[in-house]
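Anyone opening a protein record will find just a pair of labelled lines. A complete record is shown below as an example:
=====
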Amino acid sequence: MNFSGISLQQSPPYFVTIKFFITAPLFLLLCGILLIYGDLGGNASDFAIYNSFKSLAFMHSMTLGFMLFSMLGALQQMLPVLGGVNIKYATSFSHLAYFSAIFGSMSVIFGFNFSMTNLLFFGSLIMLFSAIFFASVVVFKLFRANFTTHTIKGMIIATIFLPLVVFCGVLLAHFYAFGEFFGGVWTLLADLNPFDFLQNLHVKSAIFGWIFLLIVAVSYQVLPMFYVAPDYHKNFRRFFVPLTAFIVVLSAFFDFFSLILQVLAIIYGIYNIRILKARKRKNSIDTTIRYWYFGAICLIFGAVAGILDYLLPLFADFSHSSDQNNTLNLHYMSLFLLVFGFGGSVVSGMLYKIVPFLTWFHLSATGNFSIPSIREIIKEKYMFAQFALYCVFIASFVLNLYLGFFWVSGVILSLGALLQLLNLILSIRVYLRFR
């Protein structure tokens, strides 16, 4: 591993971040349960991610649950390590961010699942508090970092998108609960359809502004550090994140820029595969590398589906229901592959790198030389089994956009989530045993 440019001595206490990482698979399990019992319909036209509350519960279990908790934990871990700055009262800060996110996300998910719009709105307000509180502290600290890298700059930009995403969600939740947008605030933007505009900004900012950009920024540091891969080109590191952020904002107003976002995603996916193939230890392929490869492939296919979703209506004859279903399939396929295929895969791979590394690092700091190595903390065969289940889940869900057996995908995802949870618990047991 290459630890140049980081300060391991600044790492926060073990359980400050571990509680976020161990909570993430529970939300992945909830995703599976919602697929099994959600009655999501027989095909993509019924699986209406924008219009079905149960489908929205499923999607937000991933974004507000698995993805968010993994990323909150990772940011708290990387803030002192990469930036050399500490959060004052780190434990109290972590607890407040954690429990507000728990109550907020669960309220939103169950508000969607049981069509309880008041609970949905209440939960979105809690999430807004949590997002603003967390993002403001993190961004303030990152601006004061001892050394500024392109990873730090990218983390700042991505974190700024988090409260924007949640604020749009609050406005949408208010509309669901009360049928209006805070007393006609949109009269200043009379030419915009407020619901479509907010929905578009919410989705684009969440997927490309928050999730995608944070992964991109972190990959600048993580791939060379953990996998001895070459650095990204300096101009790519300098311009890619700011350019993508600018295009995300434009895409909310001009739909054409959504096409450019998909092209940028393809460029990053291809470049990522090239970076991984150029690493020095090419013969050493573990499960976490497979997750990065699989995530990049899903990103490319998801972006291609998004491009086709944009172009097909220009040529399709919507008098035929088959054309409408084809565009729906492409639309949901693109969203699913970008969030679950790309985001879920990369985050899962990083959990299997970060949690064993933190376990080993905190134990080694005690001077105990009898501890297992990083690769021994979670057995490779268990991680690979969970990876295989996740790949099967992704493939089965895409097929079920046409076949409609979403409960089968739910069973596969639930089994994989349980295995991932057990794998992470094994790492924590090692820490408790040797500390």
About this structure: The chain has one domain: 8-181+189-434. The domain at 8-181+189-434 is CATH 1.20.210.10 (Cytochrome C Oxidase; Chain A). The mean pLDDT is 88.
